[in-house]
Every structure is written in C-alpha cells, then in structure tokens.
Amino acid sequence: MDDILLLEAIERYLAGEMNANEREYFENLRKNTPEIDQMVVEHNMFLHQMEFYSQNWNLKQSLHLAHSKLLERGDVYEGGELSTRGKVIQIWNKYKRVTAIAASVGGVIALVISGLVMYFSPVVNGNQLEQLSKAIEVIKKNQQYQGNLINEVKSKIPENARLISGGSGFLIDTKGYIITNAHVLKGSGAIVVNSKGQEFKATIAHIDQERDLAILKINDPDFESPKSLPYSIRKAKTDLGEQVFTLGYPKNDIVYGEGYLSARTGYNSDSLSYQVQISANPGNSGAPVFNSNGEVIGILSTRQAQAEGVAFAVKSKNIYRMVDELKKSDTSLDKIKLSTHSVLKGLDRKEQINKVEGYVYYVKAFSKQ
Fold first, then answer.
1. What is the pLDDT of residues 216-237, one digit of tens each?
2. Residue 212 carries which DSSP code?
3. Are residues 238 and 319 in the same domain?
C-alpha cells in the first residue's frame, strides 16, 4: 500500500470515518502487520500532539486579540508614561481579593486532581509509562465489595498491617512459588488470593528491581500443592503478530484479555520486555501473558500512557535467568523447578482458561505498622 494512501487510511480509521467492512479489514491488517500497527500508534500520538499545539496557539491568539482591544480602548498603554496606570491599579485593588481567592481555589483543585492522578496511576519514564500495580484505595473498595466473603472468612492479613499495593501473580513451581512484578511489592509482606477467593499467607523470597520481577513463597497450611502446572514457561523468543492472552486482577474477579505481540522490544527498545497490543489496567501487573500453546511468554508490567492498548511485558526468559542466579546465592531456592511442559496445546481458549485460572493469584502487599 502506498505510504500516502496508508496514512490517509490511518487517519480515517482513527477519526471513525470507515464503514464496518473497511474497519474490519483494516483491523485485521493491523493485527497481522506489526509495522502498520506501530504506524497507527505513532500517528495517533502525533495527532494528539498537534491538537495540543493547536489549542495553545488558539489561546495565544485569543490573548493577543484581547490585548489589542484593550489598547484600542485605552484600558492599557504600552511605552512612555503609563497614563492609564491609575485605572489599572484601581481595577486591581477592586478585584484583587476575588482574584486571589479564585487563584487559590483553582490552585487547590489543580493540586488535588494532580495528586489523585499520580496516586492512582503511578507513572515512570517521564510520564510515558504507567505501572500496572493497584492503588491501596482500589484494594479497599474491592474489600468492601467482597463484604460477605470477608465477614464469613477471617482475612489472613495481620491485624497490625495496612495494605500498600496490589497486582497479579502466578505459580512458577508447584511448591507455592509465585512470580509477580517488583513494583507490586511495596510493603514488607503479602497475601495471595486464588480465583475461588481463598487467601494464603506468603513471604517475599526475592525482589529483582532491575528486571522488575519478584518471587513470593506461599507458606500456609491451607495451601495444597498441585501435582503439576498446566502451562510451561517459554525460554525461546516469540514471533511478531503471535496471538496472546492474559489473566489477571484489575478488578476483584479474575479478568481475561487477548491481543498480540506487536514488537520484540519494549519501551525505548528495552530488550528485557515485549510490546503487546492488549488492554491492561491497574492490577494487571504480574499477570502472565500466554501464547496460543499455553506457554508463558511474559509478565505484564506497564502500559504506555498516551497510546491506547499498548502494554509491555517482561520477557519470560528473565524468570530463568533470575532463578539461576538465585540458586547460586541461596541454596534454599534450589527446590524451584520451572515448568517446561504445557498440556494446553491444541485446546480451545475456554478450556485453556478453565485449566489456568486456578494458578493465577491476586497479590495484596502490606506493611506492618
């Protein structure tokens, strides 16, 4: 497709001007052609920047026009003696209190809004990436929503502890070892909750800030070790355009999402992660990303703030590297045996989800007071 025609098609697609058949064809083309998908993302960001520039330019023009009218009426004066200085000072004295109050209220509102945005959507790398851990207030709301369950079953969170953050995680070993993102574990301890709502006490075995990975170990008499894991953890690289899906906890219940691998590297060509075209929300941090054969290819960690559906996942081969390094320094972790066999190959998606969801956990990190 000619570049000019392609750009025209992208603009029509983003503007919603395509009919149903055209849109379906273009979305299939986007899924199967990572280069076109990347062009759509970049052009969307470009249009946002142009709109922002246009708004700023229009504001400056409006201010310039207003200033010109004030000059014509003699309300303001430029150069020489300020013959209208008295009038300006009188107007200022008359309205300065109201102006000060308005400015103060506006400032407070701006600060509160900025604070809420920063609090509920942790951002890294110059406001371009958002971590997908869940804020404490969201966890509290989920707990209130779960009121009946909490009233019936005593929570295993220590009484003298307060929740800090949350996310997702999944078993990498049948003995209760769970992988998640390092940024999910902002406290000193954690509990994990399975898809049936059962809570288990867990300890933090290791945190790797560089790779943004962490290992939890379930230490709870109520935990029953499975005989095996239905999925495997992939060591080899994954092909562009490969269909993927994820299970995680952006809300209280486990949530399914699907998409495809759109780049072999992450944000700013980060070699530790993949770029995935998939819907991801706070709480998805630590969620497994599976290919169609039921192999874990990555761990969801961040999303791009200014591009819809662009997320990043730490490559699964980093799990092997981290575990190998740990075994050299900590003999207690010699027991970790990563799954290399998947029984999900050939099954339809519903069957794969049914077999996998019991091994994906809601991670709640806390700090003891």
1. 999 999 999 999 999 999 999 8
2. T
3. yes
